[in-house]
Task: structure prediction
Amino acid sequence: MYNITAKTEAIRQAFPALQRAHNGYPVAYFDGPGGTQVPTMVTDAIVDYLLHHNANTHWAYPSSAETDAILDNARLVFADFLNCRPTEVVFGQNMTTLTFHLARSLGRQWQQGDEIIVTDLDHHANIDPWRDLANEHGFVIRSARFDTRTGQLNLDHLEHLVSKRTRLIAIGGASNALGTINDLQTVINLASRSNALSFVDAVHYAPHVLCDTKALECDFLTCSPYKFYGPHAGVLYGRKTLLQNLNVPRLAPAGSTAPERLETGTLSHEAIAGSAGAVNFLASLTPIEPRRAALKATYQKLHERGQHLTTRLWEGLHSIPDVMCYGPPPSDARTPTVSFTIRGLTSEEACRKLSDYGLFLSHGDFYASTVVSRLGVEGLIRAGVACYTTEEEIDRLLIAVRQISK
Ligand SMILES: Cc1ncc(COP(=O)(O)O)c(C=O)c1O
Result:
């Protein structure tokens, strides 16, 4: 077990990927917003499942019963993670696939001319499933603007878009391009006052803010464990009554009760076992009971460390001529994800050069292409702070950015 109050070094021991070197430099992974590294607790859960319990579900022999138990346990783990009931946890391939599936189901109960609100600040996984649905059924899409200077969503504009025909507001918890944390409560309350459903894309939010579906009172929320130390998988929370009554595309012989009725085909049992392992890894960083309390304490500690490292990175980048940072300053509500550009280099050129120093950063639009086009830049260089990021790695990044920007 790793205690968060112990040095980051102890946490780092859990991640074999951190032993990697490139060009003689230890690799510093700043690519967490695209997908974090994985601790051995997660790979152990995956290997244990595949080597000792591998089977399909609901049959009358031990490894099948063990598979059922592993999936049931994973729902309990995610119920703690999202603060919901185990029967409100749907597993799937990734957030995008789950969102397309949910959108298709919701579309069956709406009428031509009904309206869906999305935002310009979102990843396209929370825009295009709704846009596609609208094109198919004759629904109307309205998109809330954001302020390119502050990186903040324009909530007045969003409110202005709501009408009697609004059926759903799709909102991101946090921007994967700019790090902005949105005022979810205000938007969810607005949806509920307007008799519209609320759908939260928490893919970039869940790694940094502990989701609380009870407090938020949202109708749907999605996250992706591979962004918080787990394997590639997706998780959808849905309010029980909604999940039970949705007209979902499903096979006639498949389970008809929620949440299984939303799960198509055979799931990646190993990824679900590993996803539960990721939540348990986060909980293990603060060894207290119950699991939700441990998660709360871990998130608080990681938030404090993240704030410190983000401020150091933000201020360091600001002191380098020809570097421009985007999104809210560290004093505002934000994730520890900092995007910037370097004059004279494309984002890809910059990231290629940085990788020569063992610094792994992502570039481009990260599928938040509306954000990047509104900013009027070719692409962004994105540095994400994770639980294994050190002050020394931040300093190495700042030195390298200064070097390549000369
Ligand atoms: C904010 C946000 N939403 C949605 C997605 C899509 O998630 P998935 O890859 O699980 O479909 C991503 C992936 O980067 C993301 O950052």
Notes: Residues 43-283 form a domain with the Aspartate Aminotransferase; domain 2 fold (CATH 3.40.640.10). The mean pLDDT is 97. The CA atoms of residues 84 and 252 lie 28 Å apart.
